[in-house]
Every structure is written in C-alpha cells, then in structure tokens.
Design goal:
The chain is mainly β. Helix content is 12%, strand content 39%.
Length: 179
Amino acid sequence: MKRFLRIAALAALMGSAALAQETGAEDPPTEGAEHDPNRGAVTNLPLPRYVTLKTNEGNARRGPGLTHRIDWVFKRDGMPLKLTAEHGHWRRVEDAEGAGGWMHYALLSGVRSVLIAVDLAELHSRPGDDAPVVMKAEHNVLARLMECDPDWCRLNIEGTRGWVRKAALWGVDPGEIVE
C-alpha cells in the first residue's frame, strides 16, 4: 500500500514521463511505432556497443531488476563489456567469454577499454607491422582504448602507448573507427 501511495504522489508531482524514469518503468510503445533493434530502447544509442565496468565489483543479474538472482559478479575495474539490450535503468551486458546478465547503468561507463585477445600482441610506435615495437602484451591484459582506424588501435597500458592490430583485441568491432 505504501508503494502505491508513493507512486501516486510521484505521479501527481512529476507527471507520467518522469514517473516512468523514476520507477524504471517504460512507456508502452505508441501504436504503429516501431523500435529499431539496432538502437537502445532507452538511450537510442547503437546496439550492440562496448562499455566498461566502472567499479571493482558489479552484479550481473538474471533479469532487469533487483529482485532477479545474481548470476555473475564482475570484479575487474575497467573491464570491457558488450552492451546488447536496455530496459529502464538496466543494461544487458556480456564479457569476452559470453558470460553476463543485466546490470544497473550506474555501474557502467562509456570510457572504452579492450582486452588483448591473442597470446602475445605487439604494440608498435605507429600503425604498421614495420614500425618499431614499443611493448608486448599477453592475453587478457587490460588496455585503455585511445583511438582506432579501420585496422589498428592505439592503446594505453599503464602509461605505455602503442598501436596494435584490431584483430588482436576484444572490445572493439572490426572496421569500427574510434576518435
């Protein structure tokens, strides 16, 4: 009963659009309106897209809400995650191995990072296999994504910057340009 009174009071003060945002409810689609499956229903940003975990611990739940069971606990600050769906304040994400679930949007950041997806990746001083190697990074090393052209990405790993072939990374799509 208290929740109903709280919602009724909020509705009177805020209006239905603000109420939907406050309670996490979404307005039903207007008749005849079609949602683009390549865009988030809440943010209208592209799907899928990559985000990062902005804490050192984040619960991934079976469904979008606190009442759903926790399936995974991600424990790597800055970990890249692929965002595949949106519902209210919740985002469905998965890691490089395909594990995931629904996380509250406040745990996620738009700052980009990537994981080294090969056994050993060479970071070069500029894009190109003939450029000098400035560092070598092992599988699953976490790197801050700085920029990407169609084939190469510039990374920052603990202060060392270099270019690596995009095919050696998880957390960026083939052909994706990052500026």
